[in-house]
Amino acid sequence: MASLHVLLMALVLCGIALHQSHVEAKFSKSMYINWGTQHCSISGNGEDVQLVLDQNSGSGIQSKRAFLFGSIEMLIKLVPGNSAGTVTAYYLSSTGSRHDEIDFEFLGNVSGQPYIIHTNIYTQGNGSREQQFYPWFDPTAAYHNYTIHWNPTEVVWYIDGLPIRVFRNYESEGIAYPNKQGMRVYSSLWNADNWATRGGLVKIDWSSAPFRAGLHNFRARACKWTGPVSITQCAATSPANWWTAPTYSQLSFAKLGQMKWVRDNYMIYNYCNDTKRFNGQMPPECSKPQY
Fold this sequence. Notes:
The protein is an alpha+beta fold. It has helices spanning 2-21, 27-30, 229-233, 253-266; strands spanning 31-35, 40-42, 48-53, 59-63, 67-77, 86-93, 101-107, 116-122, 131-133, 144-150, 154-159, 162-168, 184-191, 211-224, 267-270. The radius of gyration is 20 Å and the shape is globular. It starts with a helix and ends in a 21-residue tail after the last strand.
């Protein structure tokens, strides 16, 4: 009986820890409109957001709190038709000149041409780690799941459960990793026709406005950032911190196969292959195993 009591207490304490460190979120409770108030709406049930862009303004939302490690996911339906010059963004970011950031950006295109899924990661203010993909589906016809999984070992970008990219922690070898700053969740729809489509050659066709992107089912199964104490708390190996379990330290053989399929067939740019851009002085992580 004593051992049963100890087990029950452990389960209760684990439950309390889970409650303290995890957020099952939805837009109405966990996010707010941070710009373009007249161009953004949150549905009555709190599960849906519509972002709107016209000649007057774009719009955006952000989470009320910041997180350090966990899984952030959202269903997104992109602007249909001629979306050239528009960008729908979905990312995590801290603030300041030495901020960390993990990005999904969806670069619009003229009708009949594919979107570009643009990913990047900033550590201590340094980015320039772009990888880009064509979608293997129509991202405007239905909602698709975009997930950022982030733990002390690696960051993984997922689309509909398929991993497309990994950035591993090589901090011990002098390569910065986003593990000391809480990041909020952001999403926005904005005018980026100075660069988004064919390097800015194709501008927004405002006769197609207003442009609309839909967001649905935001979930943050993540550790709440409460200040510097979270650096240790959120990285501690424990049942409450499920993202620290060994199974999340490296992709499974099956997931590696899925990622290889995506990268072999749909990747269109990888900064680690762009020797001309870096004049042969490649970023140090490019020589390290990421998978």
